[in-house]
Amino acid sequence: MSLNYEFFYEWTNKNLNLNLAGYKEKQLQRRIASVMKNAGAFTLEDYSKRIEKDETVKQQFLDYITINVTDFFRNQDIFEEFESELKILSQTFPSMKVWSAACSTGAEAYSMAMIFDKHQLRMAEKILATDIDETILKRAKEGMYKIHEMKNVPAKERSAYFDEKEGIFYLKSNIKNKVQFKRHDLIADKFQKNFHIIVCRNVTIYFKNEVKEELYQRFSDSLVKGGIFFTGATEAIYSPEIYGLKKISAFMYEKL
Ligand SMILES: C[S@@+](CC[C@H](N)C(=O)[O-])C[C@H]1O[C@@H](n2cnc3c(N)ncnc32)[C@H](O)[C@@H]1O
């Protein structure tokens, strides 16, 4: 039986403030069909009613669709390269405005805050960390992590920036206070301007090509000249010059 995705996209847009039209269709539909089945629904009309009535079903749907996988210092060697680049950049820009877009649990934004602290780099304002998923943003603001989420955090940073209690790691307030979390939909919402660094990793892989291309242009427009766009390990930009960007490494682009 074919499922009425058009109805469902409209419904999620209106009722959940979630615009699914920009996501890769086949991949998205597979995920929706699978999470719907897990909830015991047979049609999308039925599934939407369940989402409406049952907060747990709603949460399962949102968690499954948004895919919140993340890590501190994700892809460590790449992050080390980024750390070196930040130090170089700070010579041109003594005070930097930073955005972690699609930040999930905040691990990426907090990793940057630790780097800023470690090298005593200056921020123009708090790191802006945004995501479409309000539940994950609540978690991010709490700054509490389980041991398996800490695997990439070096021992020195663990003791400098976290307090541990019964296997839970609590971020210290000096790092927590460096990040401001906000709900933001990369497809539907406006972008702020004048960033020196934009980090957006492991989310454009879910978007259609035309949406991705539009996003690259908008990220570029939001950077100051000489600013850096840091993207995911599998998200290399072909012909970055089209967007006014210059490749400086496999995952980093400089605004021309
Ligand atoms: C796989 S995680 C990536 C987290 C982090 N950037 C990293 O690389 O570790 C993808 C994140 O993108 C968010 N997301 C999905 N669609 C989005 C959209 N349209 N706008 C903003 N965030 C979105 C999800 O909620 C999820 O937290």
From TrEMBL:
Q: Which GO terms describe its biological process?
A: methylation
What InterPro entries does UniProt report for this protein, alphabetically? Answer: Bact_Chemotaxis_MeTrfase, CheR_C, CheR_MeTrfase, CheR_N, SAM-dependent_MTases_sf
Q: Which residues form a coiled coil?
A: none
Pfam families annotated for this entry?
CheR (PF01739), CheR_N (PF03705)
CheR-type methyltransferase domain: residues covered: 1-256
Q: Reply yes or no: does the keyword S-adenosyl-L-methionine apply.
A: yes
Q: What are the UniProt keywords, alphabetically? A: Methyltransferase, S-adenosyl-L-methionine, Transferase
Q: Which GO terms describe its molecular function?
A: S-adenosylmethionine-dependent methyltransferase activity
Q: Is S-adenosyl-L-methionine given among the entry's keywords?
A: yes
Q: What is this protein called?
A: Chemotaxis protein methyltransferase CheR
Record organism: Carnobacterium iners
